[in-house]
Specification:
It is found in: Membrane. This is Sodium-dependent transporter. It comes from Allopontixanthobacter confluentis. One of its GO terms (cellular component) is membrane. 74% of the residues lie in helices and 2% in strands. The protein is mainly alpha-helical. The chain has one domain (22-470): Hydantoin permease. The protein has a two-stranded antiparallel ribbon with strand order 1-2. A hairpin with a 2-residue loop joins β1 and β2. The longest helix has 39 residues, at 99-137. It is globular and about 70 Å long. 55% of the residues are buried. The model is unreliable at 1-12 and 476-480 (pLDDT under 50).
Length: 480
């Protein structure tokens, strides 16, 4: 239990029971579909090794400084993300309107949650598909025996065409997320993180080892880590920066919120390094888990978003015990997706609870209901609402349905703007004595971190913001 002092005296605040609990929860929030789905797809679409090596560099120079900045704001403020920023601004004798930067992040987290649970529903669907296949075909053979690859590839479009099923799966995934968040930090969020993250890593390593012995592991290793300088183009670098930023779930107030539950005895710099290293390791292992299976089946690595949901199921067809391995794989993905969705729901729940003096159950239920409304519209944008384009009047959103609009708004606007404002606030606005008392750094490392937060992070993130809004400037697109 973390204790914080409020205007009415000292009141108890639910918090992490230990350092390891915070690390598991923070890693669980960061490690999600961005690592398992987006990273291999991005690596495959952007030439492998050049993308991967530049991605690692971006995690160190961009991701970790912002991650530490967000957690130290939360730990100092000991409140919801907007209130934590306001408290630091007040103590720094600056305008409390700086709390708006975290309010933007809270709104971003709410919007990401609304479409993230739709994708979580896809994962539940594939868990069911592989479980059914395992039950009917047995443990020994490959997945979907006797079915042509075209039928397997058609599973995802078939799901997209069923609006009722899509909306129902979104509801189930969101309901599971709500259950854990409504139980509180130590009894709910910490519980799901400390149980599911070890299970996730065990399954992850088991499938990676399986792929190493049954797939084209050396080919995948070469693909991911052989550096070809000619492939390091501007679009590849932008994609790597964007992936490093998005994979750590920065700019959506989640790490500020989680930081508020951290005790004063924890070194935030060292903990942020562990979180960043774990997140990066999962992304790299995702490539070593997926690509050996894909290459061994003679399939292409540049399948984009369809790599996980279309290419991989075809690859499982050609593997021994493919149904069983496929089932374990999607259960593993489901664990990662759930720990991330819990973090996304917690940020707006903490704000709603504090702002309107509501119980946790009421606050989380209200937020979840709002996310359900948006999420249902996002799910139906693949079918029944396919002709509904809410932001058709904005060129970069022309012709896009609700799912793509929510994704684009958060990725191109809310997340980079939130991270830019965070780096400016920590680097230039907040009293540096407050910052120095929280960040756990000293000497040359502290000076280097301050340089990154003040200069490099806002500059690079501004480039991401501009290119996201005006992709024709470089021809790089959105990096997705």
């Amino acid at each position: 239990m973390v204790v914080t002092t409020g205007s009415d005296g000292i009141t108890p605040r639910d918090g992490w029971s230990s350092r390891s609990a915070f690390i598991f929860a923070a890693v669980g929030s960061a490690v999600g579909l961005g690592n398992l789905w987006r990273f291999p797809a991005e690596a495959g679409a952007n030439g492998g090794g050049a993308f991967v090596l530049f991605y690692i560099l971006c995690v160190v120079l961009i991701g970790l400084p912002i991650l530490l900045s967000e957690t130290l704001i939360g730990r100092h403020g000991q409140a919801s993300a907007p209130e934590s920023v306001r408290r630091m601004a007040y103590e720094s004798k600056k305008s409390k309107h700086w709390g708006g930067l975290a309010s933007l992040g809270v709104l971003g987290a709410f919007m990401v949650l609304s479409f993230y649970c739709v994708v979580g529903g896809w994962v539940l669907y594939y868990i069911g598909v592989f479980a059914q296949d395992l039950f009917t075909s047995g443990l020994v053979g490959g997945a979907f025996e006797g079915r042509p690859p075209g039928d397997i590839e058609a599973l995802l479009p078939g799901l997209f065409g069923n609006g009722m099923l899509m909306a129902g799966l979104n509801f189930v995934f969101l309901a599971i997320t709500l259950y854990f968040v409504s139980r509180g930090v130590s009894s709910g969020i910490e519980f799901v993180a400390t149980w599911l993250m070890p299970a996730f890593f065990a399954l992850f390593l088991a499938i990676t080892v399986y792929g190493a012995f049954t797939g084209a592991f050396s080919e995948a290793l070469s693909y991911l880590f052989t550096f070809h300088p000619e492939k390091l183009t501007g679009s590849v670098m932008l994609a790597a920066v964007g992936q490093a930023f998005f994979s750590l779930s920065l700019g959506v107030a989640g790490m500020i919120t989680y930081g508020a539950y951290v005790g004063r005895d924890l070194n935030l710099a060292g903990t942020s390094l562990i979180i960043g290293a774990a997140d990066t390791a999962v992304a790299l292992l995702a490539g070593l888990c997926i690509f050996p299976i894909v290459f061994a089946a003679g399939l292409e690595a540049n399948g984009g978003p369809g790599l996980m949901f279309q290419t991989l199921p075809i690859a499982f067809q050609q593997m021994p015990a493919g149904s069983f391995v496929g089932l374990l794989f999607f259960i593993m993905v489901g664990f990662a997706a759930l720990t991330s969705s819990v973090g996304l729901l917690e940020a707006p729940t903490a704000w709603t609870k504090e702002k309107f003096n509501l119980s946790r159950v009421t606050a989380s239920s209200l937020v979840a209901f709002g996310a359900l409304v948006l999420g249902t519209m996002a799910a139906l944008s693949f079918n029944d609402l396919a002709d509904f384009h809410p932001l058709d009047f904005i060129p970069i959103f022309a012709g896009q349905g609700m799912f793509d609009v929510l994704d684009g708004l958060t990725a191109k606007f809310f997340m980079p703007i939130g991270a830019i404002l965070t780096s400016i606030f920590v680097g230039w606005v907040a009293d540096q004595r407050l910052i120095d008392g929280e960040n756990g750094l000293s000497g040359g490392l502290h000076k280097f971190w301050r340089f990154l937060v003040r200069w490099l992070c806002p500059a690079v993130l501004t480039v991401i913001l501009v290119v996201g809004i005006f992709p024709s400037i470089t021809g790089a697109g959105s990096g997705g």
